[in-house]
Amino acid sequence: MRLLCLEIKRIVKSRLTICMIVIAVVFSFLLAYVPICFYNCVNPSGDKEYLSGIEALRTMKEIRSEIEGEISNEDIREAIACYQEVTKKYGVESEYALPIEGKIETNKYQFLFWRIKEAYGDENGLGANLNTLQVDELEEFYTAVYGHLQNNMRLEQEKYPSAQENALHMYERVRVPYTYYVGAGGTVLDYEELLIFLILICCTVVVASVFSTDYQNGADDIQRCTKHGRRKLALVRVLTSVIISLAICVLCLGIWGISTCIIWGTNGMKTSIQILYSVISLPNLNIGQLMWFLGICGTTMIISSVCLTLFISSHTSRNMISLIVSIAACMAPIALGWVLPDYIIDYLKALFPAGGVGLQNGILYDLTDFKFLNVGPFAIWTPYLIMFFVIIEIPCWIGLTIRSHNKHELR
Amino acid sequence: MELSIESITKNYSSKTAVDNVSIKIGRGITGLLGANGAGKTTLMRVVADIIKPTNGNVMYDGVPISILDAEYRNIFGYLPQEFGYYPEFTVIDYLEYMAALKGLTKVATKRKIDMLLEQMTLTDVRKKRISKLSGGMKRRVGIAQALINDPEILILDEPTAGLDPGERIKFRQLLSEFSQNRIVLISTHIVSDVEYIATRQAIMKNGKIIRDGSTEDLITEMSGKVWECAIQTNRVKNLEGTIPIVNLRNVSTDITEIRYISEGSLLDGSTNVSPRLEDLYMWLFGHSEE
User: Taking phi first (over 0 means left), then psi (-120 to 50 degrees means alpha), and beta for anything else, what does residue A82 get?
Assistant: First the structure.
């Protein structure tokens, strides 16, 4: 225990660690604040066309106060009726062509238009034209959503009935009717994904030198000759790195989460993800739960990556090489995503501890998508696949790190 | 109490750093002398179990150190040539860290650190960062960490590098006291470090031990071969190429006393003098030192 405390003290006292923690904390505040800057809405009072930031959020809460809560079939009908009425009034085909006055009139229901188009889309997956929908003859919204999911899975997983079945089973657990409150949207979660990526880089920089520095400057020679300088020291260093990385994750994601709640309000966290992403998203989560889930998955992936970095560090005698290789390992899924086709990278990235951390290939997109890895009769949803490998790799990298440090021989 | 090095060979790709070395080291101080690149550090690292030999074995009291493992390291103290430390650590942080690695209790750590800081005259800088210390002070911190667990076997690689003359003398005194009932192996190319305190000297050249014995035994070989002669200073340059001069001393601005090695007198007025270990070292290594 004393060695663990001293090792934590050693790493935390390092200028590099302090620097990385400060950077991560600053970005936590920054990335919580930035999304509200891009939030805007049409101005109902008319003195200027658009409002932005907190003012826009406040206005939107006023406009949508009546529709907040559970989205009923009646709300859907009203949204379609409003759409048809306003587009007819201004003589346009879609909401995008509406003048500012028309946008003000449809603002209350605007968030539902895409979801309705999705739910009532045709068999080929094309979104419905809201102007052609007959409000009185419409199928019940949530029945249509379920039908859309069946249709979508048939199109995407034509040869894999187990994937279709799994998707339907998962969706059956989704709570309906969906809930909507004005507040944090999908963009906010993109920033959480970005923050996780930044924390990953900071943690990687901190731990990349844990073993390699000592190999490089000769400190390892002395430690290796001590009673606890081999296996125990390696284990203590792994624990220390995991504890510090975990602390950085909790601190930064905590700062980001609290700041996000303060800015956007906690009410908005109750919105079903199906309202913000796809109407047939499979997880039974609201935005707040998705934030937690993403935070937990992100932290687990960071810990797994940290364990890989430690292995690299215990294997290299040069600090810079350890850092470069570790950063490359973190970036590999992103880089491979640029060069490999989706159907390969979707599964290949799962093998990397940082496979679900990234800007284009983050686990957030897998959570809101319908990708399944089909192995024989089994269909595994990609987030499960990613997290399965992330978790089982942790003890593997730890074991290999301890072995590598124990056997390390400098020339 | 015996450390026995048996037929140790260590090869690095095409180079043989240590070539079939066998030596038994008992209580007291043993000096391992040799020029840079002679293989001393490699041998030290094999003894410290930092690197595995290509061939051979190191045994402590008849048991291979690979079997003793942590038990061996528990009675071991080592100061390498390059003393790696953490720049952010203060002297006390570092010693506490090393004590924890060596398995000392908190109470024993405090007592031992206080004692060593006093002995190494580091008390005033105990809270200073190691990176801010002078080379000599850093070296003393390195020596302190090696002694912190009261090791039965102490291995010091070039321990006096960076120490001033006063510190060297103090270090030798400390080591003489410490070496009672302990095995101390000091590797150095500075002969004076071990000449008077080591009970035994081993001289390494090209990976082999070429001489091994007490200082008295070794210098017997040089009896009658060491000469001193006072000459005009301006003659020194000419003589350097022809006579194996091992030392020079300026007596006055015009006169220089030279010390040289030869089977017989090479200069008029030469006096045969008592040999020292340094003379043997110079005789063996001449000007070939890298």
Answer: alpha
